[in-house]
């Protein structure tokens, strides 16, 4: 037997080296490769390198996407649901010609176009004069006024007038407009109320995502902690746990313990609460 | 952690079938019970994001945009889903297509091949500049970036996301044996780049 294996010997085991490195070969082939490796430093080195690179790949930690991804998706979903509901509610369309003559149709189109143009010009002039008078008389819009407008849109009758999709949109844009350099922006409290009391779970999820962006405000961690004990929708519960864990909010441990033991919570929610506890403690 | 839930679309309260399969949920989505898509989103948005993150050389912003695109397309083309096909294979195919579209757009933006090769040269040089253990994961990503796209795809699926050869075969429309051979070649290619002197 030669001291060093020939290139042909290496060729015969080359296809087996990855499975050997992964310890997936049957015993007979394992012995055959091991016998070759005992004589071949190059193939031995290759196995060491294969194991090293495979271990590094398998050690890659999963990353968490930004919570905005969920908010955008929920908004899209609500828009599609609204479009679907509108289609279902609309009576079946039937085309019934009113003026059979093509010439009449063209005349009507031209007339409608001219009317639209004139209306546009008129509205533009009216808007300019209205803007200038408003600028002269109205007080500057401050954060409190903005919060009041937002609150009236997101609660009570205002919320009933707006679709869930519109409310999700409003929640996202409200969070983006908050001045994080100023303390106690009242919009944060409006978003907290939406998180706790909006009837639609997707709007509550969007509010949680929006608040997470404003997590530098100390009220956010407190609000998530309190909200966990009143939310009943499992999606909202799971998101809140996830956000509290991301924020390392240790004040939430009592609520997490209660949720982990809550008999009427879904098993997956209890499991998520236990995971959160394990991470925070 | 994947989230496995089911909610009643009318009330959002949990119902008896706590763990309906992906295919059952997708059938409900096809029947316009769109709330079930939120459950599928919870199950898949993280794995799909991570898949796209590794395919885009850790570009978080692009990976998030592409994940959004995947779910937009899923919603828009929900009727094209065939119940005979596995949902997981289908959604990963949507992700693969979204990534391919993005890659093509990027290629069109490149002015010359010279720029590309210069960038690759820089990546390679930085990948092998130091052997500090703390930098190994960065080197790994840079070595992955130097692989052909198909090999990077199969390594992400097999070694990072933990798909079996059978599951990869379903996604790539080949046999489990062929998936195994491709995965082995890809690992060998990565090893050669990673340990090249």
UniProtKB/TrEMBL annotation, chain A:
<dbReference type="GO" id="GO:0016020">
    <property type="term" value="C:membrane"/>
</dbReference>
<dbReference type="InterPro" id="IPR051474">
    <property type="entry name" value="Anti-sigma-K/W_factor"/>
</dbReference>
<keyword id="KW-1133">Transmembrane helix</keyword>
<dbReference type="InterPro" id="IPR027383">
    <property type="entry name" value="Znf_put"/>
</dbReference>
<dbReference type="InterPro" id="IPR011989">
    <property type="entry name" value="ARM-like"/>
</dbReference>
<feature type="domain" description="Putative zinc-finger">
    <location>
        <begin position="10"/>
        <end position="44"/>
    </location>
</feature>
<dbReference type="InterPro" id="IPR016024">
    <property type="entry name" value="ARM-type_fold"/>
</dbReference>
<dbReference type="Pfam" id="PF13646">
    <property type="entry name" value="HEAT_2"/>
</dbReference>
<dbReference type="GO" id="GO:0006417">
    <property type="term" value="P:regulation of translation"/>
</dbReference>
<keyword id="KW-0812">Transmembrane</keyword>
<protein>
    <recommendedName>
        <fullName>Putative zinc-finger domain-containing protein</fullName>
    </recommendedName>
</protein>
<dbReference type="GO" id="GO:0016989">
    <property type="term" value="F:sigma factor antagonist activity"/>
</dbReference>
<dbReference type="Pfam" id="PF13490">
    <property type="entry name" value="zf-HC2"/>
</dbReference>
<dbReference type="InterPro" id="IPR041916">
    <property type="entry name" value="Anti_sigma_zinc_sf"/>
</dbReference>
<keyword id="KW-0472">Membrane</keyword>
């Amino acid at each position: 037997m030669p001291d060093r294996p020939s290139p042909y010997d290496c060729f015969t085991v080359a296809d087996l080296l990855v499975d050997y490195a992964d310890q997936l070969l049957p015993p007979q082939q394992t012995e055959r490769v091991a016998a070759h490796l005992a004589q071949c430093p190059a193939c031995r080195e290759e196995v060491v390198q294969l194991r090293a690179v495979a271990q590094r790949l398998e050690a890659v930690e999963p990353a968490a996407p930004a919570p905005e991804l969920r908010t955008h998706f929920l908004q899209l979903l609500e828009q599609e649901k609204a479009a679907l509901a509108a289609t279902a509610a609309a009576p079946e369309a039937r085309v019934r010609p009113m003026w059979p003559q093509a010439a009449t149709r063209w005349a009507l189109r031209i007339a409608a176009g001219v009317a639209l143009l004139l209306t546009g010009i008129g509205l533009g002039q009216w808007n300019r004069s209205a803007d200038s008078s408003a600028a002269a008389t109205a007080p500057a819009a401050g954060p409190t006024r903005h919060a009041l407008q937002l609150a009236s849109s997101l609660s009570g009758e205002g919320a009933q007038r707006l679709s869930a999709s519109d409310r999700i949109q409003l929640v996202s844009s409200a969070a983006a407009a908050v001045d994080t350099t100023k303390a106690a922006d009242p919009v944060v409290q409006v978003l907290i109320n939406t998180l706790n009391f909006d009837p639609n779970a997707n709007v509550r999820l969007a509010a949680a995502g929006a608040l997470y962006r404003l997590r530098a405000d100390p009220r956010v961690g407190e609000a998530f902690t309190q909200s966990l004990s009143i939310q009943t929708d499992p999606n909202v519960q799971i998101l809140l746990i996830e956000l509290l864990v991301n924020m390392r909010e240790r004040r939430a441990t009592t609520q997490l313990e209660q949720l982990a033991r809550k008999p009427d919570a879904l098993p997956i929610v209890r499991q998520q609460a236990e995971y959160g506890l394990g991470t925070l403690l | 952690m994947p989230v496995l839930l089911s909610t009643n679309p009318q009330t959002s309260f949990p119902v008896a079938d706590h763990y309906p399969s992906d295919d059952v949920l997708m059938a409900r989505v096809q029947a316009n019970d769109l709330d079930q898509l939120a459950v599928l989103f919870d199950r898949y948005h993280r794995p799909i994001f991570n898949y796209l993150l590794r395919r885009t050389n850790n570009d978080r912003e692009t990976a998030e945009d592409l994940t959004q695109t995947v779910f937009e397309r899923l919603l828009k083309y929900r009727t094209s889903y065939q119940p005979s096909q596995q949902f997981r294979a289908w959604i990963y195919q949507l992700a693969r297509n979204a990534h391919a579209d993005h890659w093509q757009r990027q290629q069109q933006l490149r002015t010359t091949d010279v720029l590309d090769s210069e960038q690759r040269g820089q990546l390679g040089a930085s990948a092998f500049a130091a052997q500090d253990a703390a930098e190994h994961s960065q080197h790994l990503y840079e070595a992955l970036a130097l692989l052909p796209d198909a090999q990077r795809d199969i390594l992400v699926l097999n070694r990072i996301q933990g798909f079996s050869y059978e599951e990869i075969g379903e996604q790539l429309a080949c046999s489990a044996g062929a998936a195994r051979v491709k995965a082995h070649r890809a690992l060998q290619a990565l090893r050669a780049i990673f340990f090249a002197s």
